[in-house]
Each structure stands twice: as structure tokens, then as C-alpha cells.
Amino acid sequence: VVWEALLDVGGRMRTERHGARDSLSLTDSGAQYVTRLPMSSQLHDDVYAQLHAAQLLKPLVGTVEGKRAADGGGDNLVCERGLGTLVAYLLESAGVEAICGRRACAIHVVKSSDGGRPRWRVEHEHGADVFDAVVLTQPVPQQLRLLSGCGPGAWLAESEMYAKLRAVEYSARYAMSLFFSERHRQELDALVPYVAKYVSREEDNRLVFVSYDSAKRQTRGAPSLLVHSSVPFGLARMRAKVPTATVEAELLESLWRVLPGLPQPLSVLVHPWEYSQVRYPLEMDNGATSFLLQPALTQGAVPPLVLCGDAFSPLGSRFDGCIQSGDHAATTVIEALHASGQLV
Fold this sequence. Notes:
single chain; alpha+beta; Polyamine Oxidase, Chain A, domain 2; FAD/NAD(P)-binding domain; 2 domains; 3-stranded antiparallel β-sheet
């Protein structure tokens, strides 16, 4: 079972839609494309083969103006139905039930009434469920907030990992999606000569990225654009708690400066990414890309509780980094359950 606090799975591979849930008028408001690095060309071949076979990934075609040092080289891949579809597909194909709109509020060890092994009681806004093992995948600051005040939080505070986790930093930015009428397609095709552009500071100090999103994904849906703000702009506005309407007006002003003559969109949606991308991944021991949280001294067994996510992988906030950490977390849970005798 997966709990997702938002109304759709995907996390930073979030897809915004205009209209019905199956609408092809959409944008990728978080990750823009999947990049396979040359140095890891064989990494996760099975996952990529599965996604290609399901026709969910295809090469990005079109001009990308400007560059970003963090991208490196490699092949860029897109999903016509939005990158959130990849996450939903992988969960479904693995037989995982995703419960959206459910946020974990607290976690405690509970003993079985029949004297069996202890389990995790995870509370949410409307109740609680009990599990044999728990894996946390939120950004590290959210993991720490969840664990604080609970028993596992005391374990973590006593570990050498605690200081490292508290030092993890993320970038912050806004994503703004613009949805247009089909009648504006030819006008947009002529106005926007690229599928994506990295905006220089000289051009604008609020925007860092502009995507002709519908063209980037080669979709049949109505045209759409997506812009990302710069990190300094995002951090400043979020810390000052500037109203979303004000942020939207500022980003639109910058976009019309970068793309003068842009037609009026049907709708605009601004999404704040408080934790966009991890700046410096954690340095883990022995090639680990997840962390099994246990008390320093314990009497008897405790159920597995594993922390993972892009911050735990040396590949950082990339698709491969997320898969790498998830694979390690799954192996860690299985090994812990074997060690406790719950799996044979």
C-alpha cells in the first residue's frame, strides 16, 4: 500500500491537467523529462524496457535552447500522457494499491495483543492503519517532521545520521502551467521556436525555464506552456509567504517579456515546489541509498522503518536516483523481515 498526500501519485513527476482527469491538455509541472546518463546506460534497463514496451517513453524531439550544468549528457525521454503516468503505471504493474489524499501524521510501535511481533501504527487525519514495515519517501525535512515527537524520532536523534539529515538542502521554485485554446496552436507554433528553453539571468531574473509543453510531449491535446521560476525568486517569495495571485502576476509579466505577443491563456495554474530538487545528496556508507532506522539499544525486535528518496542516492533528483534508492529500500525491508523470521 502507498499513501500519497496529494490527489494524484507522482510526487515531483507531477502532471497538471486542464479539464477532465483523462484530458491530454496537460503539463509536466515538476520533472520535465527523463535523462539517461551515459555513465549509467545499463542502470535499470529492466525498468526502461518495461516503460518503452508500454509506449510510455519516447525520445524528446525538438530544439532545447540554453543549457544547465546539472543536466550533463545523455538521452532525454518524454511521456505523451505526462510523467505522472509513469509513476501510476509502475505502481499498478507492481500490484500496489495507491491511496491518494492520505497524509501520515504520526508513527508508533505497537505490540500485538496476541503476543506476536511488534508492528507500526501509522496515523492519518481520519484514523490509523497497522503495518509490518514502513518506507518513508518524502523529502527529508518532511520525514524529520513526521518522526519528531514519535518514538522513532528519539532513535534518529541518537544516530550519527541525524546531523546529516538535518543538513540536507533542497531548491525551491514555482511552476506555472498555461493552457490555451486549440485555435491558438498555429500562433504558438510561430511564436515559440523551441520545445524548451533555459532562460538566462540577463533575459529575466524570475524565470529559469520555459517549455512549450504540448510540443515537447508531441501530444494531440490542446497547446500548453510551462515555466519554472528561478530558485532565488522561489525561495524569497515562499519565505515571505507572498500570495499565489501576486506570484502568478509576476511570472506572467516575466513570461510576456520573454515571449512578447503571447496570446491570453484559457487558464493558469501556479504550483509551489517547496522541495524541488536536492542540492547535495547524502554521503552514505557501503553504497547504501536508503537508511534503516533502528534504536541504538533495543530489547527485542522492532519492525523495519526505512528512509529513502532522491536525497539518499548519489544520482540525486533524477529518475535513476529515485529508482536506485527505492530498490535499495525494498531490499533492506526484505532482509530485515527475513532476519526477524517474518519472511522465510
